[in-house]
Structures are given as C-alpha cells and as structure tokens.
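note to self — DONT lose this again. spent like an hour looking for the file last time. sequence + predicted structure for the chain T wanted, 181 res
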Amino acid sequence: MAVKIRLQRQGRKDYAFYPIVIADSRAPRDGKFIERIGSYNPNTDPATISLNFERALYWLNCGAIPTDTVRRILSYEGVLLMKHLQVGVKKGAFNEEEAQKRFDAWKKEKVAAIEAKKNKLAEAKKADKKTRLEAEAAKNAAKAEAVAQKKAELAKAAAEAAAAKAAEEAATEAAPAETAE
C-alpha cells in the first residue's frame, strides 16, 4: 500500500483551505484518510500553516511520499531538513546534539526572515496609508480652493447684480422726477 502525504480541498468556491492528511494513494482526493497532521490556508498573507511536526516526521520516516505542494510545505516547516539530519546521524556523520544544534540555527534564521517579511509588509501598509491620506488631503484642499473661488465669483456676481439693481432703481426714480417737471 503506497501512503501519500497530500492536501484535501475544503472550503467554498474561491476560498479554499487544505487539511494536510496521510492517505492511501488509491483513495480519492477528498475521501478517506489515515490521519490528519495539519492544515494549510493560502488565503492569508503570509499563508497560514499549522503542522504536527513529529507526526509528519514519523510518516516520512515510515516511507510516506509527499506530493509536490506538501513537499514544499514540509521543507518550509523544516521537516525535510530534520529527516536529512537524522539520516546523517544514522550514517555517523555527526551526533544527535549537532543535528539539533543545526536545526535550531536554521529555525532561528527562518523565524527571523518571517518576522522581517511581516514587518516589511506592515511598514509598506503604513506608508501606503500615509500616501493615500496625503493625496486625499491634497484633493480636499483643491476642492476647498475651488469652492472658495466659486463662492467668491458668486458673491462678486451678486454684488454686481445688486449694484446694477440699485443703479436701475436710481434711474427709474430719477426718470419719474424728470417727467413730473
């Protein structure tokens, strides 16, 4: 029986998430499985991966074959590196403590890289928000200037109309006075 480590598709249309399962290779994709060892959600940024490290390592050591996507996930989480280090210990290249030290150093670098990426995304988001606020303030200032200019033109037109009306009234008052004489 060939055992595979693969993804099962769940979720709704255009919003899928994937449990990572151990299954017989003959079983359907979303069908019967032996064990669920984690999940993968690509809808978040960065993608969310939860994995039972020990069980994944156990199944790899038992001969389970991961699919390409799961292989990338296991590599990202360090399961494949740990398996590689365990093979080195079995061959006598180094001892278990050295293998654990190498894995811990790799994990520390990985965590630092992930935190740096999250910080970079957060800073980019803040900078984008700041530029959008500045652009909005500039648009609002331009609108306020246009409204003030229009109000000034309307006030000028109203003053001209009032002056013309006053001149017309003065002319009509003067005209009956002339006709009366």
